[in-house]
Amino acid sequence: MTTARDIMTPGAECVGAEDTVLRAAQRMTELGVGALPICGTDDKLKGVVTDRDVVVKVLGAGKDPADVKVGDLAQGEVVTIGADDGAEEIMVTMTQHRVRRLPVIDGHRLVGMVAQADVARALPDPQVGDLVEALSVD
Predict the structure, then answer these.
(1) Distances (CA, A) of 12 to 49, 69, 101, 103
(2) Does domain 4-136 have CATH number 3.10.580.10?
(3) N or C: which end of the chain has fewer CB atoms below 10 A?
(4) 131 or 35, which is more confident?
């Protein structure tokens, strides 16, 4: 069975909940990623900030990214996947929560990120189509 640990991008970097959205956008640019986990001062995962969040919730709303804290964008319970969960469980979780990226947790420690593309490479073609379709519907 292919697990999250097998297909994830390891060593995900957190952005602090108290960091500005501008700093998060700069880190995304430096790392070449479209999402960063948000970690609190207690080192616990608070959420995930995406490039879409920056555009829609900050820029599109006329807010200054240098004034908005990343933690202000974290909403509700953080959706994660266990490092030893299988690719099909990842697909189910992504579909249920309509997310394209999941932080991968080993115990309570963030160990990586798994993206829709990672899952697509790990699943048979019909399931990939189901996943893409489920996440592409508005």
Answers:
(1) 13, 20, 12, 8
(2) yes
(3) C
(4) 35
